[in-house]
Every structure is written in C-alpha cells, then in structure tokens.
Design brief:
The complex is a heterodimer of chains A (233) and B (428). Chain A has 233 residues and is mostly helical. Chain A has a domain at 129-227. Chain A has seven helices and one strand; from the N terminus they run βααααααα. In chain A, α1 (50-75) runs antiparallel to α2 (81-95), α2 (81-95) runs antiparallel to α3 and α5 runs antiparallel to α6 (201-219). The longest helix of chain B has 20 residues, at 124-143. Chain B has helices at residues 19-23, 44-54, 96-101, 124-143, 162-165, 168-172, 207-216, 221-240, 259-262, 287-301, 304-319, 321-325, 328-344, 407-416; strands at 10-12, 31-38, 63-67, 72-76, 84-85, 104-109, 112-118, 199-206, 250-257, 271-278, 349-356, 367-374, 382-389, 392-399, 422-425. Chain B is globular. Chain B is of the alpha+beta class and 428 residues long. Classes of the chains: A mainly alpha (233), B alpha+beta (428). Chains A and B meet through β1 of A and β8, α14 and β15 of B. β1 of chain A pairs parallel with β15 (422-425) of chain B.
Chain lengths: 233, 428
C-alpha cells in the first residue's frame, strides 16, 4: 500500500500516511494489519508521594509534640499548646490529608477542611471563654464553606465541554460572596455590637457588579468570542 | 573474580561524557537506542540470562551514575538490570534518579530486543558492541549455536581489557584548539508534544540502490543523506522566511567515530562532531551543489589532526586545576549553560550513520533487522540516524513535536530521486 501523495510505501493496515496525514483507503483491498512498531501504552509510571507525605507528617508532629511537652512541663496542663496544636492539625487536614489519596476528590476533602477549621474556631472560643462561635463564626464560616463547596461541585460536575458555564458559576459565587458581606455586617453588629453601618454595601456593589458582568458575558456568545480573541493566552 | 566478592569497579566519566549528566533535565536526557529484530519471538527469561552472562564483560556499560564532590562517575552494578517489556515510547526520558540506579535499559517486544544507553556511558560504536554481544549470547542460549567472537561480538568469558575502559580522548587531544564556530543557525520548530512523546519515522530503503545512487554522485552514503537533510531544512527555512537576507545558516552535526582515525578499542565515548553546513543567504543550492559542499567539507573536517584540535579544548578544560576544584553543584549549572550555548545551538540537528552492520555469519540468518535511533535534541525537536542491515538501510528521523515537517520533505524527495521508500512510524 502506497501514499498517493508522498509516493512512499506504508505499513500494512496503516490508517494514514505518517508524513502527510493523508487517510489511506482502498475499498477492494482488505489488508491484515502489521504488528505496530511498539506495543500500546506508554509505560509511564506515576510517582507516589507517600514518602514525602510521610516526612511532612512527621514535620507537623514534631512542633505539636514539643509544644505539648513544654506546656505540660511549665503549666502542668494544656494551656497554650492547644492553640498551636489545633492550628497544626487544621493545617494538616487541609493541606496534607488529601494527598494521601491518589484521586482525592475536593468535593469530599473541602468540607473536611472546613469542618476542621470550624472545630478549631470552637476550641478557641471555648478556650478564651468567648460567646462568638454560634453567633458569628459558625454562620459566617458555614455560609462561606457552603458557597465554596457549591462552586467546587458545580465546576467539577456541571461544566463539561460547556466552558462558558464557568462564568455563570464564578459570577454567581461573586454575588453570593457580596451577600455574605451583608450577613457578616449583621452578625458583627449582633455579636460584637460594632456600630459601623452599611459598609457591606460597598463590597456587595463591587462583587455584585463583577458577578453580573461575568453572567452577561456568559449569556452572550458574540461577546464571549470577541473577548476570547482579545485576551487568549 | 565474581562481582559479588570484589570491590565494584568505578570509572571517571570520559571527556565527552562530562557534560551529559549536567545537561540532563526533567523532560530530556541524552540517550540513544540500538535494536535487533530476530526471526522469532524473544524469550525474556533467556534474554535476562544472556544479559547476566555478558554484564561482567562490560563494566563500563552496566553501570550507574554516581556523584562525588567535584565530578560524576560511573560505578559498576553488582548485578545486571532486569530486562523490561518495551513500551510505545522509545527513549523515554532517563531521569537522574533512573541513571543513578542503572544507566542502560534492556527492552524486548515480540521478536525485538533493544538497548537504550544514557550517552555518558558510551557512544554508538560502543553501544553496538554491547548490543551485538547481547544478541549473540541470546542466540547462543536460544539455539545452542556456536557463534564466534568476531566482528564486534565480545567473548563474555574474557576479562575486560584496559584499552576498552580507557578514556581515549586524553591520549589523542591535539596541542592546539580549533576555533569554535558559534554562528547562529536556523532552528527547526514545532508544537512540542506535552508529554515529550518521541515520534519515530523509519524510512526503509534498499541498501544497494542507495549505495549505487551515492556512488554515481561520487560521494559516501553519509554525505548523500546529509545533503538530503540539508536540502529539506533549506526548503523549510525558505518557506518560513521568504527574505533571503534574514535566513540563518543551516548546519548538520555529524558524529565521527574517532576509533577509525586513531585506532583503539575503547568502549567509552570516543566521538567528536563535524559541523557541515551552508549559508542560504548566498543563494539557492541545487542538490548536486549540496552534495559537493558536504563531500568536501567532510573531507576537510574529518582528519586526525583537525578532529584532535576540535576536542582539545574540552580536554584542556577538564585538566584545568581551577575548574577541577569547583564543587559539582556549582559546575553543573555552568556546564549546562555551556551545553545549551555551544553544544546544540550550533547545528540544526545531528545525523549519525553507524554504517553497514557486520555480524558473524552464524547470526545473520537469525537477525531480521537492526535499528539505531538518537533521542531528540534538548532545545530542538529533531535528530536523524541511519543503520544498514541485511540489504536494507533504516533511516530514522525522530522528533518530539507534532508536525512532521522534515520527514514530509525528506522521504518524498528520496522517492522522487528513484528510491523505493517504505515508511513506518510509531505515531499514536
């Protein structure tokens, strides 16, 4: 079998000429495909991170244990080491834990990290004898985590080939973050009696307009095309 | 003495090899591959046995790369590496971690065995001796043949000779250095494969016809193919840069086997390069003009005195006490810079022709095919190589970019010149 364009003989069963890419087709010629030059599969091995994670885990554990030991030695009970330990554990859950899994799904691991951060806030609140966890940290942190989790779920499962849906998602998230500022102002006033009024309208206006802009771009294919042409990289 | 009971042999890197570990990068290693295809399927267990048998005979090749404070060195492996099943990724990058475990790979696929060498270990000629000896030992085990140790097949029962392990550059370096030609050359470009997949396009030609074609023009096969490559690259540049005055030199690097000039039996690197090229700003070149230019440039460049002057500066640098005293972690980035500046950027690609493969008569009916391929350059996507075996010439062009610019000009030109070309490729 020959390529009619290049004039070179091709491997039996070749689908196209490797030089010019011309597809090979002969309706009356049924050829047995030759063995390929190489076996299928690239043989690339995936690099395991477990060694590095093992070391990182120990690096997290060393300051945790040292702080506990010093605290117990000086105070005879856990006083300030709980704050350090809580921060380290929260950091470990957020940064290292997902990497122990080959295909860590952020849909699962982000709520875990958020829960760890909220637990740490609860510990700080109880440790310092405050009353701000239920009235401020939990609703604000929970709402923020809900917005981020929704964005992650939508980006992961609702985008597919329709890349412009990212604009809807990010636009919606920006508007939601603006609304969150209203909630933060309200809860600050209720929990801490901070009297500064209506500051949240500024971030709400900025984030709301940005979000709206992205949604308008998502809605208009000609606008998307023109912007893509101007700003692709 | 058994390898397990004596201290492991270690060797300083030869002069040409010094730069290769420093030039190693995440997606690129300087490596080449020699393969033999037999008339029947390869038995991996027997191949492993054959490798185990011949490994002690090649203490400069069955090695790993190690680092000391000032230089890298090669250390003999206590036992041969395991043979591996081949994959559709010839010459996949040898990472530093891998070459620190073993600097060669022995692979098998259907009826083919292949050896991939990190270039710091040996050159094409040394690699061919290893591959032939491995193939001969495998065929001995498989068929019970009595294959004599001639034509580059070494006897695995003999001890390695000192001359085989010597760095021959030290002995033959000339007193004067040839000036380096560092004028800018045209660089072939393409869309880099994200995973640096190496496309191999093999053109199979009739050796007799090719020899006859070259003979009619009064040149060698290497000169003929080099002129063809130059012509193809000139055409590519002309298409990309219509203004002649802005065109850059087109030059091809031809590795020269220095054993042919100086003799010796070294199995380490003993190769220097001749840069053959033309200046396209001077006008268009016909194929016959290119042939003459290449032929005469090769004749002028490839002489013992000239080649000695080409590798003399490298040997002089290696002997420089101040350079020796610089720690390796400082030397490494400098050597890499030197490699990028003057190692590769002075030519468009390398074209290495190992010539006609000679095998003991007993092996010939069992070896169906042999191939030699170079990896792509670090900063340019192409390289080309050639080997003749059993009446066929296998001209391999490799690239790690998507567009087959060079091949799509080279092979059709050969067809137009009257050669029957069969093209095989590993395209995905």
């Amino acid at each position: 079998m020959y390529c009619v364009k290049c004039g070179v003989e091709l491997q039996q069963g070749a689908k196209k000429c490797p030089l010019c890419g011309l597809r090979v087709y002969h309706p009356e010629l049924a050829e047995q495909a030759e063995a390929p030059l190489y076996p299928r599969g690239s043989g690339e091995e995936t690099l395991a991170h477990s060694g590095l994670l093992f070391i990182l885990s120990f690096l997290f554990a060393i300051p945790l244990i040292l702080c506990l030991m010093v605290d117990l030695k000086l105070n005879g009970e856990i006083v300030w080491s709980g704050i350090v330990g809580g921060a380290l554990l929260t950091g470990y859950v957020a940064l290292c834990l997902p990497h122990w899994f080959q295909r860590a799904n952020p849909v699962v691991f982000f709520p875990l990290a958020a829960a760890a951060a909220l637990c740490y806030c609860l510990y700080l609140c109880l440790h310092f004898g405050g009353h701000w966890f239920l009235s401020f940290a939990f609703p604000v942190g929970g709402a923020l985590a809900l917005i981020v989790e929704t964005v992650i779920v939508l980006l992961r499962y609702a985008v597919g080939a329709q890349k412009h849906r990212i604009l809807y998602i990010v636009g919606g998230a920006l508007i939601a973050l603006g609304a969150l500022c209203l909630l933060i102002e309200f809860l600050l006033r209720v929990s801490f009696s901070i009297a500064m009024r209506w500051w949240s309208l500024y971030p709400l206006a900025a984030l709301g307009l940005l979000g709206l802009m992205l949604i308008v771009i998502a809605l208009s294919p000609p606008l998307r095309r023109s912007l893509h042409k101007k700003f692709f990289f | 003495m058994e390898a397990s009971t004596r201290p492991l042999r270690w060797l300083r890197l030869d002069n040409a090899a010094l730069i290769f570990p420093a030039a190693l990068r995440r997606h690129w290693s300087n490596a080449f591959r020699i393969s033999f295809s037999f008339t029947e399927s390869v038995d991996p267990a027997l191949l492993q046995q054959a490798l185990d048998r011949i490994a002690p005979r090649f203490p400069s090749m069955v090695v790993r790369l190690r680092r000391s404070a000032f230089w890298y060195y090669l250390e003999e492996l206590p036992q041969a590496p395991a043979v591996q099943a081949d994959v559709n990724r010839p010459l996949r990058t040898m990472s530093m971690r891998e070459v620190q475990r073993c600097a060669i790979r022995v692979l098998y696929y259907r009826d083919r065995i292949a050896v991939e060498f990190f270039h710091a270990v040996t050159d094409g000629t040394g690699g061919m001796v290893f591959a032939k000896s491995l193939a001969a030992e495998y065929l001995r085990l498989r068929h019970g043949l009595d294959i004599p140790c001639v034509k580059g097949v070494l006897n695995p029962d003999e001890a390695p000779r000192d001359g085989e392990l010597a760095d021959a550059f030290q002995e033959h370096a000339g007193p004067l250095s040839a000036p380096r030609d560092d004028r800018k050359v045209f660089r072939l470009r393409g869309t880099t494969e994200p995973d640096r997949f190496l496309h191999q396009t093999c053109g199979v030609l009739d050796s007799a016809a090719l020899h006859q074609g070259a003979k009619e023009k009064g040149v060698s096969v290497t000169a003929y193919l080099c002129a063809l490559l130059l012509q193809s690259i000139l055409e590519i540049q002309a298409a990309e840069q219509p203004r002649r005055t802005r065109r850059k030199n087109v030059r091809i690097q031809i590795p020269v086997n220095l054993r042919q000039l100086y003799g010796g039996e070294s199995l380490r690197n003993f190769v220097a390069v001749a840069n053959i090229g033309v200046d396209p700003r001077l006008g268009d070149y016909s194929f016959d003009e290119l042939l003459h230019l290449v032929h005469h440039q090769m004749k002028l460049a490839i002489t013992p005195k000239n080649m000695a002057a080409i590798f003399a500066p490298n040997v002089r640098d290696e002997r420089n006490v101040l350079l020796k005293a610089v720690p390796l972690f400082i030397k490494n980035p400098i050597m890499r810079l030197v490699f990028d500046r003057i190692g590769e950027s002075v030519s468009c690609l390398s074209f290495s022709n190992l010539g006609q493969l000679e095998l003991p008569e007993e092996m010939q009916p069992l070896v169906r095919r042999a191939e030699f391929i170079l990896g792509a350059q670090a900063s340019a996507p192409y390289n080309a190589s050639c080997l003749s075996c059993g009446g066929k010439t296998y001209l391999n062009v490799v690239r790690n970019c998507r567009e087959p610019k060079l091949e799509s000009r080279l092979f059709p030109t050969l067809v137009r010149q009257g050669f029957a070309v069969r093209v095989e490729s590993n395209d995905r």
